[in-house]
């Protein structure tokens, strides 16, 4: 049987550096291992890796690895940086435990990582709901739209989210079991709402979404 818990990560959509946080869920669905990764092997060994939780300093260590318990009642944002280059912080990922009937709201154009945690030794597959039928998510050649890692706990990566990606996903051995632990994905874009004032001289603008974003937006100051 498969656990109804899925560890998820939503990738921040403002890329500040070549650093990235990789997420490795464990089979118990309760702990998650994070790695502060670079696109290539650094010539000079970093003095230390600095970890941030919810934008606040967590700790620093020579190792790029970090492990922590996750619970179903909260989500936490993690990021990392290399000591001496704190301004080049990796984009944050949001980590939490998804239970039965969980929902994710993501911004159009962003990327999404869903990591599967299973209690069985059989390698599960990813499925998505097409109408009323669960169909397997397949990787089409060189297409970067969907990528699935080749391991015992496959991670589904969806890039360049569009409104067409709005559906339910599940990680399981058989599609007929998907009703047990679906993940409902909603994709939203930004819209400006206008609130004029009674004096006719000023106006209030609000940047809004159609659903509450799972990942808190991170805006660069320009």
From TrEMBL:
What InterPro entries does the record tag this protein with? Ig-like_dom (IPR007110), Ig-like_dom_sf (IPR036179), Ig-like_fold (IPR013783)
Q: What range(s) does the Ig-like domain occupy?
A: 91-171
Q: Where is the signal peptide?
A: 1-20
Q: Which UniProt keywords apply?
A: Signal
The family database entries (Gene3D superfamilies) matched by this protein are listed as: Immunoglobulins
Query: Is Metal-binding set as a keyword in this record?
Result: no
Q: What is this protein called?
A: Ig-like domain-containing protein
Q: Which organism is it from?
A: Takifugu flavidus (sansaifugu)
Q: What is the phylogenetic placement of the source species in the record?
A: Eukaryota, Metazoa, Chordata, Craniata, Vertebrata
């Amino acid at each position: 049987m498969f656990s109804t818990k899925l560890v998820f990560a939503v990738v921040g959509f403002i890329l500040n550096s070549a650093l990235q946080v990789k997420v490795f869920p464990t089979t118990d669905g309760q702990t998650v291992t994070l790695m502060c990764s670079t696109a290539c092997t650094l010539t000079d060994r970093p003095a230390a890796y600095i970890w941030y939780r919810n934008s606040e300093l967590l700790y620093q260590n020579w190792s790029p690895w970090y492990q922590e318990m996750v619970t179903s009642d909260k989500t936490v944002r993690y990021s990392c940086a290399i000591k001496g280059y704190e301004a080049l912080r990796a984009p944050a990922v949001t980590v939490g435990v998804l239970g039965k009937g969980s929902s994710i709201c993501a911004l159009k154009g962003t990327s999404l990582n869903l990591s599967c945690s299973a209690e069985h030794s059989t390698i599960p597959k990813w499925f998505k709901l097409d109408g009323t039928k669960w169909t397997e998510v397949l990787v089409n050649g060189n297409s970067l739209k969907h990528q699935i890692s080749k391991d015992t706990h496959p991670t589904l990566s969806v890039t360049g989210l569009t409104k067409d990606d709005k559906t339910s996903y599940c990680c399981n051995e058989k599609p007929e079991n998907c009703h047990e632990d679906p993940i409902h994905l909603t994709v939203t874009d930004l819209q400006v709402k206008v609130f004029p004032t009674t004096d006719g001289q000023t106006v209030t603008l609000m940047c809004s979404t159609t659903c509450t974003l799972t990942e808190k937006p991170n805006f660069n100051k320009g």
